[in-house]
Amino acid sequence: MERFIDLISRRVSRAFEEAGYEPSYGKVTVSNRPDLCQFQCNGAMPAAKTYRCAPIQIANAVAEKLQGDAMFKTASAVAPGFLNMDVSADFLRAYVAKMAVSEKFGLEADPDARTMVLDYGGPNVAKPLHVGHLRSAIIGESLKRIARCFGNKVIGDIHMGDWGLQMGLIIEEVRERQPNLPYFDESFTGEYPAEAPFTISELEEIYPTASGKSKVDEAFAERAHTATYKLQTGERGYRAIWDHIMRLSVEDLKKNYSALNVDFDVWLGESDAQPYIPGMIEDMKAKGITTESEGALVINVQEEADTKEVPPCILVKSDGATLYATTDLATIVQRMQDYQPRKLLYLTDKRQSLHFEQVFRAAKKAQIVPEDMELEHIGFGTMNGKDGKPFKTREGGVMRLERLIREITDYVRQKITENQVVDADQVDNTARLIAMAALKYGDLSNQPTKDYVFDLERFAAFEGNTGPYILYTIVRIKSILTKYGKTADPAALMAPETREATDLMLVMTRFADFMWQAYRDNAPNTICQYIYELAGAANKFYHETRILAEPDEAKKAGYVALMDLARQILEACIDLLGFEAPEKM
Ligand code: ARG
Q1: pLDDT tens digits for 563-583?
Q2: Nearest-atom index, ligand 1, CA of 355
Q3: Residue 348 near ligand 1, beta carbon < 6 Å
Q4: How far apart are CA 505 and CA 545, in angstroms?
Q5: Is the CB–ligand 1 distance for residue 328 below 6 Å?
Q6: Whose CA is nearest to atom 5 of ligand 1?
Q7: Which among 5, 168, 405, 498 has most CB atoms closer than 10 A?
Q8: Band of pLDDT at residue 126, cut at 50, 70 and 90
Q9: pLDDT tens-digit series, residues 223-245
Q10: Measured from the CA of 324, which atom of ligand 1 is nearest?
């Protein structure tokens, strides 16, 4: 569907032309003075310079061409040369009614839709998830849904950190505790046990213990390094322990992410990129783009236009170890081969910006990707506690995702239990849904690059710019529909008679504008801003209109249809943000 604002712009442009001026001056915007008019066009000002006359003269001529047009209720020239417009109720109704029966409310796919890989989540196996991983999962999931909504084929890859020192630390700690396990017996040639020598909760304790130990016990740290090296070079027993760690951790991660309503298409990790490294490095050497620097193999990525120093991308350290960047480059090789994407998008904490800049430059230099490949890193800010420091649990330790979700859910459960609206058997599920909305909207309503403060009471409030407020609006509409007893019929939508109905419809017409902005700028916060406005307009309409008490059946059906359309748009939007509404709250 052509966008509402574009329809109006097109009409006004034609009026410019009819009055003898360039049509390009006819661009219309939503009024920044809604008390005066709904839409405005300021084109007469620049046009006056071109045509050397007074702006008001042009505005008058254009306004005259718009008189009597069914699109407008009013179109008037105002000094010194503005065009102020209100659309007609019939035109507005027709547009909204068409939205109501169109797929995705008339939102069109991106004509340039493409295959892309979205690298998000990025948890480190066997290490606790921190707030950065939480944000990556929440923002990434939303960006994935938004991109898909515009017709892109998006492959969401969790890209686990599963190949680092943490694995060696765990192996060494397990050896200290159970030295007689066959994994540590080099002469063992049989089959290793199918059952892991630890449980997931033991694993959760083993890593921090080992990590702490490595900081005070140098010999232990040395052994962990060796174990990591041996694992990476294929030692059979270590690989078997690694398999156990992976199996338990992935199972646990899947549980965690599914509780967050976050869903990955592929569960690959750093380890999966390793087979691509030797060939990639050979190829880079053959292309002559690598250099030796203090025993290390690097690619220089500094460019002439740089105003700051961009250090070389290190591929292989002097001791033969490969690094984070090497793995990321090899992962690009794998992705190009397996999916032929046109875009790669990464979501991490903004502190990794330089890393990605180096990797992207190296990937282009090595021709792992074509020159016009879109490589993008979205570096997000930190979720802070009320003390302004990165969020921690009450005891001050690293955040455990499960804990955080449980705390929010408990808080919400108590609230809805006090309110006594929700049936007892629905309390748990409802609390879970509201908690998700509180957490995700609290995060997504901020511009991704900004830091924000996690504030449970504020995020979980039923009023204000919060997720629960949006859910509450949806639930309120659902309850109207239940009481109405029939299904809402979009054909019953009527030309708006009141300010509130008009405003609600006008917000609806802007749906596509906000969606495009969210998509183009990777900004789910734009969707939050939109639904906050839409929910506000729907609630105002609800308060100012006797909906179910309306004696005129046709009007009543029209009101209900309008409310229901608001509900549908709100629900579509929160689905793009990654949460959903309960039946009651
Ligand atoms: N595991 C990394 C971390 O915890 C994030 C991975 C991001 N993705 C990537 N391709 N580097 O910082």
Answers
A1: 999 999 999 999 999 999 999
A2: 11
A3: yes
A4: 14
A5: yes
A6: 122
A7: 168
A8: confident
A9: 999 999 999 888 999 999 999 99
A10: 11
